[in-house]
Prior knowledge:
There is one protein chain. By secondary structure, the protein is of the alpha/beta class. The chain has 11 helices and 17 strands. It has one domain (2-353): TIM Barrel (Alpha-Beta Barrel), CATH 3.20.20. It has an 8-stranded parallel beta barrel with strand order 1-2-4-5-10-13-14-17, surrounded by 7 helices. Strands 6-7-16-15 form a 4-stranded antiparallel beta sheet. The chain is globular and about 55 Å long. Bound molecules: manganese (II) ion. Manganese (II) ion binds at residues 213, 216, 252, 254-255, 281, 323. Pathway: Carbohydrate metabolism; pentose and glucuronate interconversion.
Amino acid sequence: MKLGLGLYRDRLTKDNFQFAKQAGCTHIVAHLVDYYNGVEGLPSTDKDRNMGIARTNDDVWSYESLIALKKSMNEEGLEFEAIENFSPADWYDILMDGPTRNAQIENLKMIIRNVGRAGIPIIGYNFSIAGVWGHVNRPVARGGAVTATFNLQEGPEETPIPNGQIWNMTYDFNAPKGCIPPISSAELWERLERFLKELIPVAEEAGVRLAAHPDDPPMPTIRGYGRLVNQPHLYQKLLDIAPSHSNALEFCMGTIQEMTDGNVYEAIDQYSKQNAIGYVHFRNVIGKVPNYQEVFVDEGDIDMIKALRIFKRNKFDGVFIPDHTPQMTCKAPWHAGMAYALGYMKAALSIVNNE
Ligand SMILES: [Mn+2]
């Protein structure tokens, strides 16, 4: 079981690779999609909700760019374990079943082949229209640390998504006025099934695992759009659509804990036993939908050491990353939060790995 750090695109720098190495990481998970760039002029409420612009024809997905990024990690003694998320610009019509769907499928096939050829083992994805939405940052983690919270009653109003947007990002500024019509979960499952049946064989050939993130927040609908994996047993439904080593899970402990059915320990056992987990978001939370708070790794409802022992028992040997953490009060709130989580994880992993 290995330690890694997830880095957003603007944080994929030599300094941050050294920071990861210093904290004991051996692996990096890279987000290549912009979330915060190019949002000048948007109201700050939208910025708070990760609103951004999805770049088209983005060179970052080319084989040469992937190799260059991998080399920059390797130079600091780190491995490139996974890419997290496709860009909304590259698959909006796959999610929406729109007119350019087949061309976008062909483009994703090319991306998967590039990723495999570059020797990057995993691509994480979240098959979702509304994406991660509805969180509000509040100073409610230990010591008043600012953290993401979800409260259906007090959160933002669930308005429909305007045309030209998906996953909280704009891909088309010239889209006709109006909003995306509501979509049922059943319809989204059909789209996911087509997606997996077309792409899993390509991923197998490329030596890549596609790893699904559950719905965050795990509500049955968000803004009127159905969700897919909002209960732990639905991960099994996703795996059974296309049984393959390449059809895998980006296992988010925090999101699973936020679900109302089952429990996180049983879910870890069920899915690690099947060797279905690509990598793990190791984070903790207090509460469940429709009301929860992300918290420091050692202050939440999950007994993280107990959880790690289940991964160990089932011989999971992949990478754990902190996902998100509360921000610590200092000049580098994000780095301090990550360093705290990584130090905890490093200690926990060495205890459990050596048992
Ligand atoms: Mn997650």
